[in-house]
């Protein structure tokens, strides 16, 4: 499987404005040394608590935020410092589906105009050809082409997300970053959108970086799963391996919170309750970033940062005690 996206030691730090004393506050380490790769027609699920850096990582892939350090490769090309036409070409091949479909669509534009906007911006179609492509995209996501003249508020939440998907597909990208694409939708609609994404992956040879805090959704759609904590990846493994036998204590805690369909098994299940709060990204703890909440931490964990190592074939974890 050839590599579509490669991330190496990526860091994104945000520095706030100077205070009244003229001093900068500590930098927010939103992403702090992340490495992974994504292959053709593969979905990598990226999970973790709110504030762990998932969305910032997705924005960095599209260069919506500037990396502080590290490297971003797309189809073997280093695009970390891409500008001008190179950056424009990257954004044609890499698209994004946002969490809130209503906010992602301009309420003043008809949906046909919103879907056709990328084609116009890149000079790929206009006039009758543009209208024809918009009609085809609407049909592709299961919406009648004649609705192109309507406004976003005339559609339901699930239909608006279909419109956002149609716009993301307009430029025929190779990679789509999906940032919580179903979290704002009703449960009954989520499976429809997920199945639509999976269908397009096979038809159009798409790769997905799928960002979510819902492990049930990630389990349904992903081939591999990366678990983030405080800006770092703490575990990366094939989906079935990770859910069957997680190696990192944080991953174990996340999986233990997934409700089971069997009420008897749910009652008998041992739930792992993490103590304390997520540390501030402006002042991460020394050693393992998870040691302040880890139920099995030892003194070594408070002093030495564990490396993300391949503990088993294809299964990576950053833990001194597991493997």
Write the layout of secondary structure elements.
Elements lengths: L2 E12 L13 E12 L3 E5 L6 H8 L7 E6 L2 E2 L5 H10 E4 L3 H4 L6 H11 L5 H14 L16 H13 L5 E5 L7 H18 L2 E5 L3 H7 L2 E6 L2 E7 H6 L4 H8 L6 H6 L40 E4 L2 E3 L6
Parallel strand pairs: 3-8, 3-9, 6-7, 7-8
Antiparallel strand pairs: 1-2, 1-4, 4-5, 9-10, 10-12, 11-12
Task: Kindly describe this structure.
With 323 residues, the chain is an alpha/beta fold. It has a domain at 246-323. 33% of the residues lie in helices and 22% in strands. It contains eleven helices and twelve strands. It has helices at 54-61, 84-93, 101-104, 111-121, 127-140, 157-169, 187-204, 215-221, 239-244, 249-256, 263-268; strands at 3-14, 28-39, 43-47, 69-74, 77-78, 94-97, 175-179, 207-211, 224-229, 232-238, 309-312, 315-317. The strands form two sheets. An eight-stranded mixed sheet has the order 6-7-8-3-9-10-12-11, with helices on both faces. A four-stranded antiparallel sheet has the order 2-1-4-5, covered by helices on one side. The model has no long low-confidence stretch (mean pLDDT 91).
């Amino acid at each position: 499987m050839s590599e579509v996206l490669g991330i190496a030691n990526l860091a994104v730090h945000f520095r706030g404005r100077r205070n009244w004393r003229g001093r900068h506050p500590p930098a927010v380490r939103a992403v702090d040394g992340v490495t992974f790769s994504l292959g053709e027609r593969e979905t990598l699920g990226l999970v973790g608590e709110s504030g762990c850096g998932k969305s910032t990582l997705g924005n960095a892939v599209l260069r919506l935020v500037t990396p502080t350090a590290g490297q971003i490769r797309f189809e073997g090309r280093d695009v970390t410092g891409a500008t001008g036409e190179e950056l424009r070409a990257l954004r044609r091949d890499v698209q994004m589906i946002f969490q809130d479909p209503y906010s992602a669509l301009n309420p003043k534009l008809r949906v046909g105009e919103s879907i056709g906007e990328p084609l116009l911006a890149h000079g790929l179609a206009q006039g009758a050809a543009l209208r024809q492509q918009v009609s085809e995209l609407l049909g592709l996501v299961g919406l009648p082409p004649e609705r192109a003249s309507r406004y976003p508020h005339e559609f339901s939440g699930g239909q608006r997300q279909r419109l956002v998907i149609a716009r993301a597909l307009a430029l025929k990208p190779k990679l789509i970053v999906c940032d919580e694409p179903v979290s704002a939708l009703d449960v009954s609609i989520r499976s429809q959108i997920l199945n639509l994404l999976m269908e397009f992956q096979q038809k159009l040879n798409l790769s997905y970086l799928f960002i979510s805090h819902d492990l049930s959704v990630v389990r349904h759609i992903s081939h591999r799963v990366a678990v983030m904590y405080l800006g770092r990846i703490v575990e990366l493994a094939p989906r079935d391996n990770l859910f069957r036998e997680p190696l990192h204590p944080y991953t174990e805690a996340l999986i233990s919170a997934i409700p089971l369909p069997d009420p008897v098994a749910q009652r008998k299940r041992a739930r792992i309750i993490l103590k304390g709060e997520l540390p501030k990204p402006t002042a991460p703890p020394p050693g393992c970033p998870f040691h302040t909440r880890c139920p099995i931490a030892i003194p070594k964990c408070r002093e030495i940062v564990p490396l993300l190592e391949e503990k088993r074939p294809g299964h990576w974890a950053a833990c001194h005690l597991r493997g």
